[in-house]
Design a protein that fits this description.
It is a single chain. With 311 residues, this protein is of the alpha/beta class. The chain is 38% helix and 22% strand. Helix 2 (52-65) links the parallel strand 1 and strand 2 (69-76). Helix 10 (273-282) crosses helix 11 (284-292). It is globular and about 60 Å long.
């Protein structure tokens, strides 16, 4: 009897040590016990605030399909999301750029593995003006001069912050090629703050993710469109001089000039809930939600058709 009990105790001890060592090997800093699967558990993710409407929809559908899954989203400026890759409790970030090689190496040194990342949709930066504004048509020279403070338009640019946000980074990197923003640029606290500011100031032009104002089937976004006018920008790839709005088809065909990607970065090296949510985003249901939100899906091919209207 003693021999049997001794062997049983030894097996339990070995099993416990194996779990501890296995968990420790997956995190160089401390032991982590896995308690989630592809469709169950609770995780935290950090998301670029520009995409709150569509990611809220994604989470709602995912959790309704898997009642044991709970995804807690924290909406922040993009730079803060990327910093959260080093926070143990954050499993995934959703931002508008991929990791740089130096960032991948830093995470590999810290986490002992390189996070998975993939593009999941295409978005656009929309310009919005006050309902009483006389100016709602711009070309790219106008946009750049507005941001630099050298424009002839008497309009004050409004961003969702002056640092750290994806919209500001896009303006600095893709539009101004590293030049500083002009002194006239004003900072709101959020995308909704940009819309509210523009609706109250006739001399304002706001820069905001199309996810906040582009979906005509969303009652909240329709109310935003009642407050502001979406500006048209000159198409750079059209054979004739054409001005277009950031509608879904113009994002898909790159007729609208301010298109950017949306990416997830997954800090998980096993099949946990983060992997389950990532799979949801890249396959049919998640991609259809992006399409319904009037972004353009990056992982599935959808057909675009020309339509005519008979008068």
């Amino acid at each position: 009897m003693k021999t049997f009990m001794h062997r049983r105790l030894l097996r339990i001890t070995i099993a416990a040590l194996s779990i501890l060592v296995f968990s420790h090997c997956n995190n160089g800093r401390k032991a982590v016990y896995r308690n989630d699967t592809l469709t169950s558990g609770t995780i935290h993710i950090s998301v670029d605030e520009s995409f709150k409407p569509v990611i809220d929809s994604q989470i709602k559908v995912f959790e309704s399909s898997y009642p044991d899954a709970h995804i807690i989203a924290h909406y922040k400026p993009e730079a803060e999301c990327l910093k959260d890759l080093l926070v143990d409790s954050v499993r995934m970030v959703i931002v508008t750029r991929q990791l740089l090689p130096v960032e991948e190496q830093r995470l590999k040194d810290t986490l002992r593995f390189i996070p998975l990342q993939a593009k999941i949709a295409y978005d656009a930066v929309a310009l919005v003006v006050n309902k009483q504004s006389k100016d709602s048509i711009f070309d790219m020279t106008d946009v750049k001069s507005l941001l630099k403070g050298t424009s002839g338009f008497k309009l004050r640019p409004v961003m969702d912050g002056l640092t750290a946000t994806s919209t500001v980074r896009y303006a600095l990197d893709s539009l101004l090629a590293g030049q500083a923003l002009g002194k006239e640029v004003t900072a709101a606290t959020s995308s909704q703050g940009v819309i509210d500011y523009v609706s109250q100031h006739k001399d304002a032009v706001g820069f905001v993710g199309v996810n906040w104002i582009g979906n005509p089937e969303d009652a909240t976004q329709l109310s935003f469109q009642d407050k502001v006018t979406i500006a048209s920008l000159r198409c750079l790839v059209c054979p004739e001089e054409t001005y277009v709005k950031p509608y879904q088809a113009n994002i898909a065909t790159l007729r609208y000039p301010l298109v950017r990607g949306l990416h997830y970065i997954l800090k998980e090296n096993y099949e946990g809930l983060g992997s389950g949510f990532a799979n949801f985003l890249i396959y049919e249901r998640g991609q259809l939600i992006f399409r319904r939100a009037y972004l353009w899906p990056a992982r599935m091919q959808f057909e675009l058709r020309n339509a005519g209207i008979d008068e």
